[in-house]
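User: My instructor asked us to take a sequence, write out its structure as tokens, and then describe one feature of it. I'm not sure where to start. Here is the sequence I was given:
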Amino acid sequence: MPLYYLDFEKPIAAIDKKIAELRTFSYQPKPKVAEEIARLEKQRQKVLAKVYSSLTRWQRTQLSRHFNRPTFLEYVDRLFTDFIEFHGDRKFGDDPAIVGGVANFQGLPVIIAGQQKGRTVKEKVSRNFGMPNPEGYRKALRLMKMAEQFEKPLITMIDTPGAYPGQGAEERGQALAIAEDLQAMATLRTPILSVIIGEGGSGGALALGVADRLLMLENATYSVISPEGCAAILWKSETEKEKAAEALKGTAADLHEMGIIDEVLAEPLGGAHRDAEAMARILSESLSRHLKELQTFSVEELLKRRYEKYRRMGQVFGG
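Assistant: Let's start with the prediction itself. The structure tokens for your sequence are:
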């Protein structure tokens, strides 16, 4: 798949183009050509390090939505085995924007669920760009209850701009479906691990995010509203989106500092989209470590710690 470049990645794009041209015109590179390619690759690493060492919050927002960013199902392929997908909410229909089922993680049976934005244009449309309808959240609720019933850990991955706000979704009970997921996860009698792998938008993301451990990729975002939506409300113009992103503080570093998330997972240099395999290995190690720790707690201790975790959020001290 061709690599897409964001505006601030143009210096990297220029170097990549030169490298590609040299490789194209020299199928068996001569020594001088090979030396030039090696020099450009070293230069690219330096430029990558410089660009990615000073990203703004808006630039991280752009990265969280990057066209090439690994999707939920791509992580499923790399992290899990024997995946069996479940369909439907047993009330209305199936929502392809949320995918889930049973799988094995390093030999351990688990229940998994996550938002799937899609990769191709056709798939993005069929999955509604990762914006779930109520039946998607009710399907997730089925999986949550199954995890509890069969005493299996629940792993969710979050990547959505938000729940679908269409009239049909509202008529079928969008708010209630999300609320039921929140309630279920708050009291679910099994370990819950959630990972924000891309864009975590509003209640549509929170519906899969009430967990014992909430992890977040370095260039993911998690916010009550998008910077564009915030700018449109506060400044009456989407052109103020960069200012809104700074005010929202929805990056992994911000949220970890505030105690909202439990761990920031460093991405490969240049972002997860530049090395999905390396990102999957990092994610696998973190999931394994947290699962092993959570399994040492009794159910009652898990529930107590989960309750205390969320009660601590949003407290304001001082006068």
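For the description part of your assignment, you could build on this observation: The chain has two domains: 7-54, 61-312. Try explaining in your own words what that tells you about the chain.
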